[in-house]
Specification:
This protein is of the alpha/beta class. The chain folds into 2 domains: 162 residues, D-Maltodextrin-Binding Protein, domain 2, CATH 3.40.190; 98 residues, Periplasmic binding protein-like II (D-Maltodextrin-Binding Protein, domain 2, 3-Layer(aba) Sandwich), CATH 3.40.190.10. Strands 5-1-6-13-7 form a 5-stranded mixed β-sheet. β9, α6 and β10 form a beta-alpha-beta unit. α3 packs across α9. The radius of gyration is 20 Å and the shape is globular.
Length: 298
């Protein structure tokens, strides 16, 4: 029995290794299945409607990538969705569990050592969400307050580095995902929630009492958000980048942005009313996969 168990473990281990070392296009061609990493509550970029259905700006882009991959392979693929978190998204891409991560991941130098990113499709501004009656209007009012942040994200790091945060002492309270972090604010356990502005807008729009919240203060950082995939896997990266370039040239990327950030979106047909920023327009007109640190030097 012990020998059989060891043999089975060896076979299983071999399968995992082969899945990790095989390039994504070959793996998908062999299995007929592609796995997307998606987020439950990453604003209009990627979120769930329940019952295994995921929608959003980055979901639409990933669906177009899959369509082009199907054309390349000459066959229909089965799409599998795996809900990822800020903590596990990078490891799940690295180990082959997720083929493409279609969420709200910041492209930075540290992550580029572990994974690869497609061209930047959205440039985010990190700001502060708070209750209307909190008295908070910017960084200076965060002193002595409880600040919600999502485990594994970069937003509070930039808050601490902001020039106006000198001498501001606050306590971080961690949510396991963005919805959990917003719940900390909604329930009064946190006084503010620091995160990407579009995620904050989406969470507020779908809150029980949207008028109780507002987004305030200085832009804490500008962050390039991109679709993530395995490192040293040029086939899938080339396909993703050519798809994004195609969408820019056709105007479909701008249409997708307008669909998710300015038009009524499910489940409540709310509008985020977030016009495309100059930084995002710049990213579209000069497609690149430059990390956050490049933006921070400007």
């Amino acid at each position: 029995m012990k020998t059989l168990l060891l043999a089975l473990m060896a076979v299983a281990h071999g399968f995992v290794v082969s899945a990790q070392t095989m390039d994504t296009v070959s793996k998908v061609s062999a299995t007929g299945e592609i796995t997307l990493g998606v987020r439950d509550s990453s604003g209009a970029l990627s979120y769930t409607l329940g019952s295994g259905k995921y929608v959003g700006y980055h979901i639409d882009i990933c669906q177009r990538i899959i369509t082009n991959l199907e054309k390349q392979l000459g066959k229909k693929l089965t799409t599998k969705y795996i809900s990822v978190t800020s903590q596990n998204r990078v490891p799940l891409v690295q180990n082959g569990t997720v083929d493409i991560e279609c969420g709200s991941t910041t492209n930075n130098e540290a992550r580029q050592k572990q994974v690869a990113f497609a061209f930047t499709t959205y440039v985010e501004e990190v700001r502060i969400a708070t209750k209307v009656n909190s008295g908070i209007s910017g960084v200076a009012q965060l002193n002595g307050r409880n600040i919600a942040t999502t485990t594994g994200t970069t937003s509070v790091q930039w808050l601490r580095k902001h020039e106006r945060a000198s001498g501001v002492d606050f306590k971080e309270i961690f949510g396991k995902d963005h919805a959990d972090s917003f719940l900390l604010l909604e329930s009064g356990r946190a006084d503010a929630f620091v995160m990407d502005s579009q995620i904050l807008a989406g969470l507020i729009a779908n809150a029980k009492s949207p008028n109780d919240f507002k987004v305030v203060g200085e832009v804490l950082s500008v962050e390039p958000i991109a679709i993530m995939m395995r490192k040293d896997d040029p086939g899938i990266k080339k396909l993703a980048n050519s798809t994004i370039e195609e969408m820019v040239k056709s105007g479909d990327l701008a249409k997708a942005y307008d669909k998710w950030f300015n038009q009524p979106i499910p489940p409540k047909n709310t509008r985020l009313n977030l016009p495309v920023s100059d930084s995002t327009k710049q990213a579209w007109s000069h497609l690149n996969d430059k990390p956050l640190e490049t933006y921070a030097k400007k």
